[in-house]
Write a structure and sequence with these properties.
β1 and β2 form a beta hairpin. The N and C termini lie far apart (41 Å). The longest helix is centred in the last third of the chain and has 14 residues. α1 packs across α4 and α4 runs parallel beside α5. The chain contains six helices and 13 strands. 22% of the residues lie in helices and 29% in strands. With 272 residues, it is an alpha/beta fold. A six-stranded mixed sheet has the order 9-8-10-11-12-13, with helices on both faces. A five-stranded mixed sheet has the order 5-6-3-4-7, with helices on one face. It folds into two domains: 96 residues, Roll (Ubiquitin-like (UB roll)); 128 residues, Cytidine Deaminase, domain 2.
């Protein structure tokens, strides 16, 4: 899909040591709205960094339990019958007639901001996942492999390197091999892009690791649950609701992941 640049250039002044310096170019992470239309109906608007919009859309619909199988999705395409200023920011989704989605499933229109993916939901019950807790398993993740993951993610954070303003998410297999990484101004969008890539390419996720560069929130644990991902790791902190939900859904939640240490909040039995 054609993509708009993930980085936008602005001139800015710099103040240092009591002096205002001359304006110079600066790179800023791009943030633009993306409207998602399903069967002709607008169901969501998310503020995102352009790039991999098909993956973002597929991941969002998968985590919302609208898409379950790869065959449910027929096509994701930009809507070109729009004003020039909106071109590239509206996506049409075509799903199989066998897919049981009904517009009445949504009593409200989704609006997801770059900072909070669940803004506008009416009640906490509405943001609980449609997916059951994970089953007990025997998979083990060596701590030595987990400790190496942030170093593997860092070279893929090109937008962050240029702007300091992008979050990253990555999917690794149980051996610590990088399967896919994506960046976005929104944490939840980066995760949707990773999930969408896995969904579109039918990658196995049941024994995988989801790594996020920032904090891990409730919504990220829910998205990981949609993909049956047993281990969520964060370079930063977890929220209280993320810990609670990971525990209830039998997910392993690791945070403050460093080269020689980590905090294991839930599911410590999976760490070897």
């Amino acid at each position: 899909m054609n993509q708009t640049a993930a980085v936008t250039q602005f001139n800015r002044h710099h103040w240092e040591d009591g002096k205002l310096h001359a304006a110079s170019p600066d790179s800023v992470v791009t943030e633009e709205p993306l409207e998602i239309r399903l069967r002709g109906q607008s169901i969501a608007i998310t503020m995102r960094t352009p790039g991999h919009d098909d993956e973002l859309t597929a991941g969002f619909l998968f985590s919302e339990n609208i898409l379950k199988l790869r065959t449910d999705l027929v096509e994701v395409a930009y809507c070109h019958d729009t004003p020039a200023e909106s071109r590239g920011n509206i996506i049409n989704v075509f799903i199989s007639p066998k897919c049981p989605f009904q517009p009445s499933q949504f009593e409200r229109h989704f609006f997801t901001s770059s900072s909070c993916g669940v803004c506008g939901r009416a009640a906490i019950e509405q943001i609980q996942s449609h997916h059951p807790p994970l089953q007990e398993d025997v998979v083990k993740f060596p701590a030595a492999i987990l400790n190496q993951l942030p170093d593997q993610l860092r070279p893929a954070q090109n937008t962050f390197e240029k702007t300091g303003g992008a979050h990253a998410a990555a999917l690794f297999d149980a051996a610590g091999n990088l399967m896919v990484s994506r960046e976005d101004v929104g944490r939840h969008n980066a995760v949707d892009k990773v999930l969408g890539h896995a969904f579109l390419n039918e990658l196995p996720t049941t024994n995988s690791i989801l790594l996020v560069s920032g904090r891990v929130s409730f919504e990220i644990t829910q998205k990981a649950l949609a993909g049956c991902i047993p281990l969520i790791a964060a370079i930063s902190a977890p929220s209280s609701l993320a810990v609670q939900c990971a525990d209830e859904n039998n997910q392993t939640l690791v945070a403050f992941l460093r080269e020689n240490s980590m905090n294991i909040y839930t599911g410590a039995q999976r760490i070897a």
